[in-house]
Specification:
alpha+beta, D-amino Acid Aminotransferase, Chain A, domain 1, Dna Ligase, domain 1, 2 domains, seven-stranded antiparallel β-sheet, six-stranded antiparallel β-sheet, 13 strands
Length: about 325
């Protein structure tokens, strides 16, 4: 075990204890956590900063408010329901179509109004929220995945996670839904994580759990070598989240819509570390380089250029 730890340190791998002590605790004041832990506040913050987000259709704050949803959603075939304080994708309900009074979920299963009502009610009561606190529920635009990503994804919408340190993008991966993850871009449920060359926006190898994979387990298509569209814009958006939130160490989750392009989906003050496995590279080495040579007061474009130059695959 000691030998393993030594080898990981040599490769610049960042562990959770060091992440918490040296980066999250020092650079992310707890008073700022609500800006990213509450999805509604994040959305409002992004809109105020001129950043694109999925359109918000409704916010349900009380059990009585559920009764108004049929009227709000009349004529809408596709939408997403999510708790404002949910984590890890818990409580997110994706509706991909309707048949009469039935709603079709992303899995293809149908649910009636009673089941829909129960899901929203449970979310309001805090079933899916951090700490079980009472919650609000957002109903928003259904993101339609960029066609270029469909061959390496199963049903759901992939998202792009970037770690941003003191305003500099330092590492990126794309999370691909699978049958095992029930169409969700959640690594803990079985989604595939694929590293991204930060300089070019080109996909690298993939990992599912602890297993390296070269092709998507459901589509069979090769994962490496795909050039992601809008990469310049994605890097710029992620870097701007530093000024937008004041958080020095954060994760930005961005989705690619077929018509609207990059949209900010969520932000995270305590982003996970599996991104290092997908990139076969340690975060700590990159963070130290920024501490030594970078200037967070530089314009966004210069910070992005620094990252593209120093953190190419």
């Amino acid at each position: 075990m000691l030998e393993l730890r030594r080898r990981l340190r040599q490769r610049g791998v960042l562990g959770i204890n060091r992440r918490n002590a040296d980066y999250v605790r020092l650079l992310n004041p707890r008073r700022l956590y609500p800006l990213v832990d509450d999805k509604l506040r994040t959305k409002e913050l992004a809109i105020a900063a001129g950043m694109p987000v999925p359109e918000l259709y409704a916010v349900v704050t009380t059990q009585h408010g559920i009764r108004d949803l049929p009227e709000v959603l009349e004529g809408r075939e596709q939408f997403v329901v999510k708790p404002a304080h949910g984590s890890g994708g818990n409580g997110i309900l994706v509706i991909t179509g309707r048949r009469g009074e039935l709603y079709r979920k992303s899995s293809g299963a149908m649910m009636d109004w009673g089941e829909f009502d129960h899901h929203v009610s449970s979310a309001l009561s805090g079933l899916y929220s951090l700490g079980g606190q009472r919650d609000r529920v957002l109903v928003e635009y259904f993101v339609r995945s960029e066609p270029a990503l469909e061959k390496i994804s199963y049903r759901g919408v992939p998202d792009i996670r970037l770690i941003v340190y003191r305003g500099y993008p330092v590492m990126a991966m794309i999370r691909l839904p699978t049958h095992l993850s029930d169409g969700k871009a959640n690594l803990h449920l079985g989604a595939v994580g694929v590293g991204i060359d930060l300089s070019k926006g080109v996909t690298l190898k993939g990992v599912q759990g602890v297993e390296v994979v070269e092709s998507h387990p459901d589509t069979g298509n090769r994962l490496a070598g795909l050039e992601l569209p809008h990469w310049d814009r994605i890097l710029e958006m992620s870097a701007k989240c530093f000024e937008m939130t004041g958080l020095g160490y954060l994760g930005t989750d961005i989705v690619l819509d077929e018509k609207l392009g990059p949209l900010i989906l969520e932000l995270n003050a305590r982003p996970g570390l599996a991104i290092q496995i997908a990139n076969s590279s340690g975060l700590h080495t990159r963070l130290e380089l920024i501490d030594e040579h970078a200037d967070p007061s530089e314009p966004v474009a210069e910070r992005v250029d620094f990252s593209r130059h120093h953190f190419a695959a």
